[in-house]
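2024-03-11 09:14:02 DEBUG pipeline.ingest accepted 1 chain
2024-03-11 09:14:02 DEBUG pipeline.ingest length=348
2024-03-11 09:14:03 DEBUG pipeline.predict start
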Amino acid sequence: MTEFFQSLGMTYELAWFTATIAGILLIAFPLMAAVAMVIYVDRKVWAAINLRRGPNVVGPFGLLQSFADGIKVFLQETIIPSAANKGIFLLAPIITFTVALAAWAVVPFSAEAVLADINIGLLYILAISSLSVYGVVMSGWASNSKYPFFSAMRAAAQMISYEVSIGFIVVCVVLFAGTFNLNDIVRAQEGFGLGVINAYIVHPLLFPMWVMFFISCLAETQRVPFDLTEAESELVAGYQTEYSSMSFALFWLGEYANILLMCILNALLFFGGWLPPIDWAPLYAVPGIVWLLLKTFFFFFLFSWVMATVPRYRYDQLMRLGWKVFLPISLGFVVVISGYLMATGHYG
């Protein structure tokens, strides 16, 4: 894209800056539209599983319901509690929303469609996704209310518990691929299964890792059954209890942007990313971004399905699963996979 702007007579520095801004906007605007639509899909899936209709009034088939909700929130009055730390209170949702967008910079939508194709893209995503908890902790502390504060403490403990196991699971994928570059990880899955299937999930050592990764993604994004930070039966609405108007909307957008990020990571790390499911030449005629979006939508459907059917864990169950089950198993698989790759002469 830089070359295109240079062809218009711009200097290299100006062309690079313009191309970077254009790339950011090309990701941010479709992502915001996608967030609005997946909220609609989320509500429709819940309704279908509970034998209800879901949104069906605003726009054809209710498709504009999320946009109507956004306008309603935008027009509400912003209320800041008198005892709150106003600076941190307002900064918290901005951090949550900004961090949620920043992680998408290294996501490859196809072989060429990536804003920053860096060699440590996977490490970058892990680092950025870990920062999202800061917005929750800041909002809980700055609200000067006991329920948001309890929610913030839960969020911090939950993030630490599942980030560790996610790290070990990612190490297993990196050992097979031999790189932290997300595009190269996708390419390493080409024909991986019996020379035909483009996915890591078909390997008996990586399938359990995907199952644990998917469950850890639910915990990382505070989705049911791990939504202890927003447990309405205990904490009213958790860290966002005192928020209204656009401050609340930024938490809302950031939460769903993080969910979409975890869905796309499932596709990139275990299901071949932008590659077609089968290594068959005619399937490559379909643009890679189409395959990636279909896989992402499938994982989002699983997220919604789990939310509509699985009851919430108790907090002690959440901690036990993270520390006593996922951590030792993922650490053990790192050892087993390392030994397997050394024994078979596969070094990535």
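2024-03-11 09:14:41 DEBUG pipeline.report The radius of gyration is 21 Å.
2024-03-11 09:14:41 DEBUG pipeline.predict end
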